[in-house]
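Structural prep section.
Before we set up the soaks we want a predicted structure of the protein with S-adenosylmethionine in place, mainly to decide which crystallisation condition to try first. Input record follows.
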Amino acid sequence: MQSHQAGDLEAAERQYREVLELRAAQPDAMHYLGVLCHQRARSDEGVRLIEAALKITPRHPDAHNNLGNIHKECGRLAAAERCYRKALECGAQHYNAQNNLAVVLEAQERVEEAFEAYAKLLRQAPKFAQGYYLMGRFLRNYAQSKEHVEQSVQCFRKAYELDRHNLRALESLGMSLYTLNRIKEAVQVYRDWLAREPDHPVPRHMLAACGGAQAPLRAADDYVRQVFDAFADSFDEQLLKNLGYRAPQVLADALGGMLTGAAGAFEVLDAGCGTGLCEPLLRPYARRLVGVDLSGGMIEKARLRGGYDELEVAELTGYLQAHPAAYDIVFSADTLEYFGELREVLEAAHAALRPGGWLAFTVEVAQGEDDRVDLAPSGRYQHTHCHVERALSSAGYSQVSIGTDTLRKEGGQPVAGWVVLAQRTAQG
Ligand SMILES: C[S@@+](CC[C@H](N)C(=O)[O-])C[C@H]1O[C@@H](n2cnc3c(N)ncnc32)[C@H](O)[C@@H]1O
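Run finished without errors. Recording the tokens verbatim:
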């Protein structure tokens, strides 16, 4: 268990197996080996092991809870819910299971039940900072009135008060204040945070996003890493279920309409691949599918899918520049929102494409006829049509199509995006 906790999965697996050779049905070894198998992308084996452990010790709340976590991360939400309920039957005060139950109800869009479950968690564990953070996030995601956003402010304040390491609560506090148009207070949250931690990339970026400092040309690497490493575990359920995320599908549909040539024939780059949500959409086109992302945490999640031929932790522009004429398709869903001025990254993508290859990407819409990029209070950039068009043309693309669609929801409202396809000329 010490090896496991220290992250030495290979040693831990060997040692758990040694225990099981000595005592074939030692339930703790089976349980923890099950968790470990899931971490090493062998989730089915993990499920079998924990189920076997539960046959021996059926009233083990942690084992039910961990089994629920595997089902949740594999997208089997109903099975996960059953496990969390069993964990609670075995130990009614199991806060993690109550917390997970609330999350999984929210992910199934059972809003009333999720609210009840979060409320119960806060009654049971009034000092549990994460509970307040999740309740705040829930209230903002499903806000039906200004009052709900105001309540989210209270929750984020409380979460931070209880746990000064819960920096996501502080970041969310600023965002809720901004949503309520309490911009001075939002700016103050980030200024105070920066005064305490002058080198922290999140308040530096978010202060600019609130208009309290000059926006950088693109989100700094350490900001992207920090945000997405912390987001990796909950990214899929947050985006797909709570934020109605559809950028990958919308972009894949647009690309599918343009491609000619045999399925499975292309060298494909998933640029800013995150946890790999685009992988099943790109796989049918790919002879070889490569994913690149700045966040090691996100890449680890993508690796668990087992569907990429290669995954690399790298900054996107640099990666593209280092791979001239390597790809037939460069596909980038919801990633260039972290870039302000697009020209440099679009030039790099152009160079990384083979002649005739396609670049496909989404970015958020900034209204207006001028050539403009705004850093929005969400921390993401928004681009005008004119900016996207000019950046593509000066990067040298020939055939260009810029459509619009909804990419996701934010604060209950649809977020409009440009859905862009651009081709490198066939001559080179
Ligand atoms: C909103 S997620 C989208 C992930 C994935 N494309 C999807 O649709 O699920 C944005 C991703 O872009 C990555 N990213 C942002 N800026 C980057 C950069 N400069 N280089 C590489 N990756 C970057 C982040 O780490 C994050 O995983």
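Observations: Residues 219, 224, 228, 247-248, 272-274, 277-278, 293-295, 298, 315-316, 333-335, 338 surround S-adenosylmethionine (CB under 6 Å).
Flagged for discussion at group meeting.
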